[in-house]
Amino acid sequence: MAVLLGGTESIRDCYVNSAVDRVWHIVKGDLTEWSITNGGTEFSPKKRLLIGTPGIGKSMAAGSYLLYELLHYDVEKLQGVAYLLADRAFLFDKTTRTMSEYMGEPDTLNTVGNLSDRGVRGYIIYDVAEKGRQPSIDLLCKGWGMILVTSPNINNYQGWASHVSAGQISINCPDKNDVKAMCAWAKHDANAREQEKYWKMV
């Protein structure tokens, strides 16, 4: 199933804290290094392991934010993005502005492999939704970077991370200033007393 991506509606109330933004800048740095090393032809971005903290939604939606940024990254340097979650995969073709959905890992592997063989460069976000389920090694396609988003459960990533020598990124709970900023934005239309009440409640 392919869906045309042409909407221009803006996203409201999307809060990104400094820890999540730091993850994107690390990935962006990998992509920059990739693009300037032999034009990206003989080099693939580092494989990354993003470990979240229990109680904060695993990684504070870092996977979704990475997807947003990767879709807006220079299409000349990155033509495809794949987002894998449980048995579903969403493959975004930035050149045609379409999204295709796949059920089951084999179909996804075949599609990404075919794109890689054609010289398409892309990035895979693998969000571990089931405990103990690690990505297939076959996902390591030439010309495609990858990040594994997981909780601290080592059964979710240990074998994969060791095989690919993944660079680890840890994401911690938001600090006091981050939480204050989030509360201020959530209640920016309220008066000072209501804002203070909301902050104390959080």
TrEMBL record:
Domain Retrotransposon hot spot protein N-terminal span(s) in chain numbering: 12-37
Regions crossing the membrane: none
InterPro entries with a match to the protein in the record: RHS_C, RHS_N, Trypano_RHS
Record-linked Pfam families: RHS_N, RHSP
Domain Retrotransposon hot spot protein,C-terminal: 49-191
Name under which the protein is recorded: Putative retrotransposon hot spot (RHS) protein
Lineage: Eukaryota, Discoba, Euglenozoa, Kinetoplastea, Metakinetoplastina
